[in-house]
Amino acid sequence: MGVRLMVVDDHRLLAEALASALKLRGHRVLAAAAPAAGAAELVISRAPEVCLLGTAAPAEPGIFDPVVRIKRERPQVAVLVLGPVPSPRGIAAAFAAGASGYVRHDERIEGVERAIMKARAGEAAVAPGLLQGAFGELLNPAAQPDDEGARLLQMLTPREVEVLVRVADGEDTRLIAAGMGIAPSTARTHVQRVLMKLGVGSRLEAAALAARTGLLDRAGPAGG
């Protein structure tokens, strides 16, 4: 017996192709495409047995809010997230939001159909390897970027932090020395120590790492 389901994805061609393939296998597909912003409303109004909900960025904060809303208003609907190869954090977030499983965009139609049947039966529909990664992520959460910035900041002395801020501002060794009232050779030594502690090979890499982790925001202005 076919499953009454929906395929909801921003990418219309992908959604329609998957919907057509599922129709050929005897399933009743209620809708094929919708923008992410309207996904929850569409699923809630149609109330399918299973919904394949597409996402392009499973690790982004709030990306699974539609799943939360669907499960709150239509708890009987099994939601399968359809997305790219996820990080363990993405898998964990999908299940935390109430999803019944995760199906990769490149999964064969047979695999998609197996996931649909498992979801309808109330089972977790996700590849064992992905599920293991998700549990590992929950038990041993990775450091967030802000945490990385704090860790890096603790590795540096106050003077080295000032050197890093000046490096990020584009100052060369001469300007660093003049601004800090030290000899150019001392400034050069400080720069090399900063690069070594950060594990980077150039001033440009050091500046990029500091900006990416929020270290510069924590450090404040040079000489401050």
From TrEMBL:
This is Helix-turn-helix transcriptional regulator. Keywords: DNA-binding, Transcription, Transcription regulation. InterPro entries: CheY-like_superfamily, Sig_transdc_resp-reg_C-effctor, Sig_transdc_resp-reg_receiver, Tscrpt_reg_LuxR_C. GO terms for molecular function: DNA binding. The keyword Nucleus does not apply. PANTHER family: DNA-BINDING TRANSCRIPTIONAL ACTIVATOR DEVR_DOSR. GO terms for biological process: phosphorelay signal transduction system; regulation of DNA-templated transcription. PROSITE patterns: HTH_LUXR_2, RESPONSE_REGULATORY. It comes from the Bacteria. Residues 4-120 form the Response regulatory domain. The keyword Transport does not apply. Pfam families: GerE, Response_reg. It comes from Streptomyces parvulus. Transmembrane segments: none annotated. Residues 149-214 form the HTH luxR-type domain.
